[in-house]
Design goal:
This protein is of the alpha+beta class. It has a single domain, classed as Alpha-Beta Barrel (Multidrug-efflux Transporter 1 Regulator Bmrr, Chain A). The protein is 16% helix and 39% strand. The protein has two helices and nine strands, in the order ββαββββαβββ. Strands 1, 2, 3, 4, 5, 6, 7, 8 and 9 form a nine-stranded antiparallel β-sheet that branches. The longest helix is centred in the C-terminal third of the chain and has 14 residues. It is globular and about 50 Å long.
Amino acid sequence: MSSFPQARIETLTEKKLVGQSVSMSLVKNQTGALWAKSIPLLKNVTNAVSSDKYSMQVYPENYYKPFNPNNTFTKWACVEVSDFDDVPDSLQTFLLEGGAYAVFDYVGRSTDTSIYQYIFAEWLPKSGYALDNRPHFEVLGPKYKNDDPSSEEEIWIPIFKKTLP
């Protein structure tokens, strides 16, 4: 990929999500297995607000200080729902709080980590924003194709405006 997408700043409103989660690290990545077992269950959700899927990461505070690929976090495979009234027993609920996010419209393979290197090493330090301690997620819409170079997804990174000293 020759150039990276520009970020747009969005204010997310609270979302109700249902899905499955697993504790993992980047070294012991279980994303494929999580999605393989979750997709058939997510198809049974009757009150999903769209066909979009959410790939969400919930990092512990100070996960990035210092960054270590062996650090564990919780990975979610989920969909947004209108309410938590009819959640299948096999799925968990998650209330995603609102707030400011930097959103990147990414085209490329989901296994290409260079977009994240760009976001955290280049864009974020120059942006006037700091990383917030809220979930990160990707919206996998109708143009998402797993690990395809023409795949499209939105990458949502939680941020807050830096204050000047």
